[in-house]
Amino acid sequence: MSCEQVLVIAGEASGDIHAADFVRHLQQLRPGIRVSAVGGQNLKASGADIIVRNSELSVVGLVEVISHFGPVIRAYRRVVEWLKNQRPSLLVLVDFPEFNLMVAARARKLGIPVFYYISPQIWAWRQGRVKRIKRLVDRMAVILPFEKEFYSKYGFDVDFVGHPLLDSVHSRMSRAAFCQKYIIPPSRSIVCLMPGSRLGEIRRHIKLFMETAVLLRDRLGENVEFFLPVAPGLQQEAEDEIVDRIDELSRSGGPLVRILHDAAHEAMASAGLVIAASGTVTLEAAILNTPMIVTYRISPLTYLVGQRLVKVKWVSLVNLIAGREVVPEMLQDQARPENIARKAIELLENRSAREQMIQGLQETVRLLGEPGAAARAAAIASEMLRKHSQGTASDVLAGA
What pLDDT is attached to residue 254? Predict the structure, then answer.
């Protein structure tokens, strides 16, 4: 039986999902391997031993590790102590760059190989970090097609493994079945409202989304249904914020907005339109072939600073991957209910506009590669483990 040991660090909920799939494939390739993790329920379910719960990091709203010394530094010290005591054969990092790069620096000093699965989005801002990553990371697997070219400009050869969402995004029911389950006449339009997966995002967007729903109901009457799928693991405080806004809307005579749990993909696949805060959900909608409007609001100061630092032309992953505007983006001052509602009506009623966007979405999804990202990443990790094992054996023989 293998005595190899791996530490996986996935500091956020989405990373926990992708990391768990990676672990399952790695276990198939290297039976008996021991996996420990900084992660959540998905990694735990995959068989990993959780040494630090990722909720200890995410509860503080981590944006920059340096801003949150308390829980982050305590978690960091526990991870470093574990590395010193256990000396795993491989450290696997999943996104979450501020924390992960600190750990990678210590792993490098301890002689532990480092594999980065799912590159942090340094191509968007603070691109200079690529030099640090190149110094600290032995191998990297990227999931967006343009990332390989980005890293190659810095002389860092990385592996494009495809996007893990291609394996996980699918609907478990047809539109007809969805309409039957939620008692919706099949002729009605369905609009999915996706205001974000974090408390801060929801607080910035929920009023905007509710006001947009009011305008759409005024224009379309009873021919539109609204659903708001909540993200798995959403903070209770965030869900309470959504419920309060929907109750307020209902009391004022506004349209009914139904909250859904564990049915986001089914709702998006059945919808005629998704209105989404920029994030991974835009790729999910693209994979499901659903037209969308992307919006986002941040504080005026953050926006002002971002204009100077951000190096990309678009914010949505769909447009970034396509290299052109496939979906409309309404950001900051343009993110107003009347603007979003106007575009929404066009996409719901103009067949030509819908078909053109769907074609663009399909072309974008093809650029994501083939399913099997986690399996390919696990194969890279397995190769690194094999080389590490051979190197360790050689060192032992040399010292004999």
Answer: 85
Same domain for 357 and 384: no
Average pLDDT of the segment spanning 103-131: 89
Where in the sequence is the domain holding 184, given as residue range(s)?
A: 171-366
Helix (H) or strand (E) holding 10: strand 5-10
Query: What is the DSSP track for 14-51?
Result: HHHHHHHHHHHHHHHHSTT-EEEEEE-HHHHHTT-EEE
**Exposure on the CB side of residue 20, measured as CA atoms within 13 A:** 20
Q: What is the CATH number of the domain that holds 64?
A: 3.40.50.2000
Residue 396: which pLDDT band, with cuts at 50, 70 and 90?
Answer: very low
- Angstrom distance (rounded) from CA 229 to CA 49: 31
Same domain as 182, residue 126: no
Find out whether 105 and 114 touch, Cβ atoms under 8 Å: no
Instruction: Select from 82, 130, 95, 90 the least CA-distant residue to 113.
Output: 90
CA–CA gap between residue 317 and residue 327 (Å, rounded): 10
32 and 109 belong to one structural domain: yes
